[in-house]
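Hey everyone, long-time lurker, first post.

I ran two proteins through the pipeline my lab uses and got sequence/structure pairs for each. Pasting them in order. The first:
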Amino acid sequence: MIGLAKAVVAILLVLGAGGAALAQVRPSFDCAKAESVIDRAICKSGELAAADREMAATYTALLDKLNGAARDELVKDQMGWIANRNRACRSDLDSIESCLKNRYAVRTKNLKAYATGTYPAISEQSLAKQGKLGKITWSFDLTYPRFAGANVDFSAVNGRFADAARKIAEESTPKAADGPEREQQWYYEQGFTVERPPGGHAASVSVSFDSYRGGAHGYGAARCTLVDLRSGKVVGPDGVFSPGEQWLRLMTQLVGTDLKKQFVDRPGFDDALEPASLAKLLSEASRYCWTGKHLEVIFNAYDVGPYAAGPYQVDIPYDRLKPILRANGPIAL
């Protein structure tokens, strides 16, 4: 499979199209040899050229650390990412630059996360389709992760992500009962980023989406999933923190105090700060986004405040959580 790795590097070096005015900011490839609309867009933008160079360098640095099956997995994933990038960003020429900026930012972030600790062998999967039913124009474009490992069974977590994506795709495809006689435009876009919390034993996946299916406004949200790379299992807060109720009491106190301060400038629902209500919310695993620097506890629109207030986020340093972390758990300080 080494030849395949070289092929991907060659693709990275060939992608792009150029202009002499951007001689000082070149992407990782020869712009003079590029032909596609994606290639030309990258070479016309100094920002995109720099993003491409950073992503290619990050990919190559990670590739050089790997061998065997892990190297092969990364090569296949990179080829899949290139194909998904091209498909998604050439579908709307009016927003091709913003599409590419987003794709490169997410890819570089994920590659850096993959290089932290044991390589998690996470590949990008995709579901995308567009069409028209009566007067409804619709599209969905979803990416989601798939884990691989020779000695770990990730089938349950992979099924979880794949099933959720298929369900969303089905819900995002209009039916006869959705009023196709009315002019409508539906869309659903979803991506994911990966963080590596301290200890190197886990990967925290944040899946975020933006959607619109009629109504006064669209809706976007984020949800996080912590995967223990040693067992291949999804772990909730009760599997990260020590047994008992101490962790929930401390989290309720820390989060409640922070949200109360945020409510001064962005008023939320006062009843959401009631200890019993907040404890119930904090029992939900999808709120816990474990980054390399701290824990982010997220509340999407409507969770603790009105839509106009937007999402809320509480960042908690790991040193505040150290006394309640489970021994030999997925988060190790």
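...and the second, right after it:
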Amino acid sequence: MRRLKLPAFVHTHRRLSLAAFGVFILLGLLLAPVAYGFAHMAATSPRGLFGIPLLVQPSNNGVTAGDIQSAPEDYVLPPGWSGADRVTVLIMGLDARDTGVGGAARSDTMIVLSVDPVAKTAGMISVPRDMWVVIPGFTPNKINTAYYFGELHKVPGGGPAVAMRTVEQTLGVPIDYYAVIDFDAFVRFVDLIGGVKIDVKAPITVDPIGADTQPKNLQPGVQVLPGNVALAYARERYSGGGDFGRSERQQQVILGIRNRILEFNLLPGLIANAPQLYAELSSGVRTNLTLQDVIQLAVLAVQVQSEDIRQAVIGEQQIVYGRSPDELSILIPIPDKIHELRDYVFTGNSNLGPLTPGSSEERLSAEAPNIAIRNGSGDVGLGDRTAQYLSSLGASVVENSSGGGQAATVLVDRTGNPYTLAFLAQLMGVPSNRILHEFDPDSPVDVEIRLGSDWINRNTLP
């Protein structure tokens, strides 16, 4: 990808500061506008920018929301992105106060944004923070720990580098840039644009953080939320939909930010006043984007039509529920389902890359699992015949024992083997409620098959 250099007259410190601020412009402009109506609230409600009602009046110290309206009358936006390659950005929301050992924190939000500058299409995918993945250089864990481990162990590139590599191998798509934004900076930015207009679909109680911690009971309808309430709305986990509903609300808030910027033509003022506004936000943003990158991507994003933008959440169709070695609830990704979702959102087809190739037997062979067979079927020779068949397909049967008795066959995944499980479940007729995920990264066995008497009559082994 071609990197554009800033003009020589732009000083280094200003370049970095403007790039950090520009991430917020990028957040708002990479996504489709959403048509919300104005809120019809009581005339006595506090009013924000443009006189729109607010639930809570934002407190602005220094730069005010009105400042972003000011730009020279003859101000012309710079050219858009000139590169031809797809641009993908990993956005991570970070609670800077949620620090652990060594000052590291887990990512609270992960959203992958992608824009095709030639086709003028864009999309975003929310990645649930409890998804269980392989983290390069570390043992499998929840994906929200990738940033934490990178910061804690001070690996090259820190938390962003580890998080980018983890998301790349999980989604199967290269990540070009990252932006880490803490909660305080997000709140401040939303207040600077006068709040964000949200269509609340169902009653929800949210708990803001910061100075105003009074719970807010939001009723259905269109309303403008100030920064702290918008953040609480996006982070609420205990209402309907759990983490998946939470991801949908996060996307709704980001869409609302873009809608706000476009609806009131705030982009010229944001860019023209970026140096002053950065002073309000700089401590809360970390990114490898340059000013030139951000501004050109933002201008490009304005050119993307709403019908050419797709959004999705990795949800129940792309995962199965499981338990971690320390008995935490986790989400086990189904790779091919995630790749299908990725291709739909980012390209509308399968141009990003093929799904895992081959037949189900070839996929099992490529995964090369170590399998243990516990024969409780009552047929002494059934374990040996099953072992011989699986070995012929490329699996390594490291244990084959008999004992006890059970009626139904059960599959146990120890280290994360989706293709092996899919093949065995189909072969043996094992439903999802008899597939157990008991992760143990140190286990010498990848998959355990507990043969039941149902396998005696069901098997079609040669």
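Reply from user beta_strand_b:
Welcome! Quick read of the second one: The mean pLDDT is 75. The two ends are 53 Å apart (CA to CA).
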